[in-house]
Amino acid sequence: MIQIKKILFPTRFSHRSKWSIAYSLQLAKKYKAELHLLHAQVLWDDDPHNPAYHFSDKKELQTRLLNAAKDQMSTDLEKSDIQDIEIKQVYERGMTPSETILKYAAENSIDLIVMDAHRKQGVRLLLGSILDEVVRSAPCAVLAIHQKENAEPKFALYSSQDIL
After folding, report:
1. What is the torsional sign of CA 130, 43, 39, 150?
2. Torsion angles phi and psi, residue 163, rounded to 5
């Protein structure tokens, strides 16, 4: 039986993330787990090989993005019942969201990653490019949540063994 002590919820603050964060909070409460809310800040300026994406004032942009992420995460949490849940709000920089998520999960001994999923035309309930990479390489189980407009979300639990 899997022991869930640390749950990671990476967020881009999309409209779909509202269902996923609620489900993450329910899981954290049920298992008395620590919930890590991660926003991966990806700036193209970090890629020294791509001069087309360089920004003139990188520090100011990073500060504005970080403040916006903090404000949005606080807004998302204030509408939820977070009593008795240990929550860590984390803002990490990285080259890609999936790389940042995987690195954080490995370094923090995460037991479960909860992520949004969406359907692509003609493909079953699976996998956006970020979710695909996380499922394939995660050091733990990944719970993918798919939600349509005005419908209850659907859940699918994956581990890297399912994909290999």
Report:
1. negative
2. -90, -35
Count of domains observed in the chain = 1
Q: State the Cα–Cα distance between residues 68 and 84, nearest whole angstrom.
A: 26
How many angstroms separate the Cα of 42 from the Cα of each of 65, 75, 84, 101? Answer: 10, 21, 32, 11
Q: Range with the lowest mean pLDDT among 5-9, 19-23, 25-29? A: 19-23
Instruction: Kindly report the average pLDDT of the chain as a whole number.
Output: 76
* Structural domain span for residue 28: 6-163
| 143 located within any domain | yes
Is 117 part of any domain?
A: yes
Q: Which CATH number belongs to the domain containing residue 51 in this structure?
A: 3.40.50.620
DSSP string, 42-54: E-GGG-TT-GGG-
- Do the domain assignments include residue 1? no
Per-residue DSSP letter, 69: H
pTM of the complete model beyond 0.85: no
CA-wise closest residue to 132 among 97, 107, 106 = 97
pLDDT digits (tens, 9 = 90+) for 77-113: 776 667 788 888 888 888 889 999 999 999 999 999 9
